[in-house]
Amino acid sequence: MNVQQVPITKPPSRSPMQTYNIAKIIKTEPSQSDRQFSAGHRIERSMLSPSFLDEGSVLVQKLPPNKLVKASGKYPEFCIRDQDTGKVIDIRYQDWRNNWNTKSPNNAKLIKAVKNNCYNEVREILLKDKPDINARDVEGNTVLHLSVMSGSSKLVGLLLYHEAQIDSLNSKLQTPLMIACSLGAEDITQQLITAGADINSQDINKNTCLHLATMNERQKIIDLLLNKQSLNLNLKNKENKIAMDYSSNQQIFLQAMQKQNNNSIKIYDARTDFGSENSNSFNEDKVGPHHFKVHALIGRGSFGEVYLVEKLDTNQLLAMKVLHKSKIQKQNLTRYALTERNVLSLTKHPFIVRLRYAFQTSDKLCLIMDYCPGGDLSSHLRREQRFPEERVKLYLTQMILALEDLHKRDIIFRDLKPDNIVLDADGFAMLTDFGLSKEGVQEHYSGARSFCGSVAYLAPEMLKRCGHGKAVDWYLLGVVMYELLVGQPPYYANDREELFNNIQKADLKLPSYISNDGINLLKALLQRNPAKRLGSGKGDAEEIKAHPYFNDIDWNQVKDKQIKMPILSRKTRFIKVEHNVFEIGSFLEQSHLAGWSFAEHKIQQ
Ligand SMILES: Nc1ncnc2c1ncn2[C@@H]1O[C@H](COP(=O)(O)OP(=O)(O)OP(=O)(O)O)[C@@H](O)[C@H]1O
């Protein structure tokens, strides 16, 4: 390989490889003691501590309409603020109930429009009049119940989008899902289950959804429910009967019971563990959008967005990656999404982001991961232009350990780049974005054939399309090392053809400020022939760990996170989320992706 050593004193300015929408700032100051007053005097507290946000961060606090929140003032304990109008009322002098009552006509208007199945009118009322989204008619049906009765999945979707309570109860203690099951509304049943409705709830007669579907001979609904692993087939109603007792085809119930028995062996422990985490016992079918509050957009990738979310029962902050089913299916990328979910669900490593849950809505696939508040290396690099060598070395050690772990399990990452390295709260580097990873690759320099990766981060063997293996990750480690030290990837060119040409043929330009060991390591990693590349031998990561560049590294200390990492101040703005992330883009159900749901606790032991 031709290597040119050139003196570079100032790094070239780094051109952004990825553009970001940087939103401007609205700083709010949530207080732990914030309370919300609503009809029925329900008191909740705002759960987000502001300490994790940087100066100028945007904190999204989109509260449901009609909430009157405690506001600060001279006597804060007597002041409430109408979230809709912003008006602050001192309840010692003004009757806040009157204020609330002015909203009732709007509720009546909403109920009427829903009963008449007038979608546009409902939408307008929700936007303009701000009625109670859980308004009830005289029989105690909420507007969501009424929309199910009207048979309009579009209306149901709209109300869910406006945060209608999915498991609200009417006077017979029936949920909207029970009504859909009784009526045989297949699409709405599916829609509500996907959105997280409870399928085991019991009404005033202790009938479940399955009882009601069976009594009303709704065969398609029965089939749909029997496919749900979380369905409890043994619940008895007031007549002491299980749903099967009302069926003329008991065989399918018995088969479902058999299937559940087989599966329960696999997931029993996990479920117990999962449930013990909090009082709301979650299960695979139930973890869904309603368990999380979306606070801000923190990153954007090619296939979706990453949001900062808060798990409502524990107040834990997590990162949620949202993939759009329509985009993925259109571009035939379903297998990449599934790979990401599979690899992440199998991985538990100090330097790989942990997947906590995976769920899907009708049009989105969601991965809930640990939140890394330090931002990604790409945005830090853009600000700092290049990093000091000692810091680069620390990040490399963590990436080597992460890749070593993946390789031991015959997984190649294939997408190593600064954008996919995020920093945790202690400054440690964590790998994220497993969409391009490949399972089942044993070879070091062949085994996978797809042409993938970000253009500036393609290994020469990928461009040649002659097959690539684990060694591709070591080449990309060299690319990352180079970029962190120099400010841009090796061979970088704006023109795609030129870039590809450079990757295959151009001389490697190495600035003189890099240490000799650093230069040797870069040359060994950026070796074009994968068979000759450092790390391509049987030893894999061991070959790299043994390089003199890492002589001063105690690998056990790194693995145990016993080293001190620099904490970089994060200047990236959080981007305010104006829309409901779970807005149902298309009211037509996209196909359900089997095997997507995941809850970490199920496999922990
Ligand atoms: N766990 C996390 N914690 C904090 N930020 C994260 C996390 N995961 C991802 N991000 C941020 O979101 C950005 C995009 O995430 P990710 O790379 O997974 O999306 P993608 O759509 O797969 O992107 P790509 O176009 O690279 O394939 C990252 O660059 C990072 O800034």
TrEMBL record:
ANK repeats lie at residues 139-171, 172-204. One of its GO terms (molecular function) is ATP binding. SMART domains: ANK, S_TKc. ATP binds at K321. The keyword Kinase applies. Keywords: ANK repeat, ATP-binding, Kinase, Nucleotide-binding, Serine/threonine-protein kinase, Transferase. Residues 292-550 form the Protein kinase domain. The keyword Cell membrane does not apply. InterPro entries: Ankyrin_rpt, Prot_kinase_dom, Protein_kinase_ATP_BS, STKc_AGC. This is Protein kinase domain-containing protein.
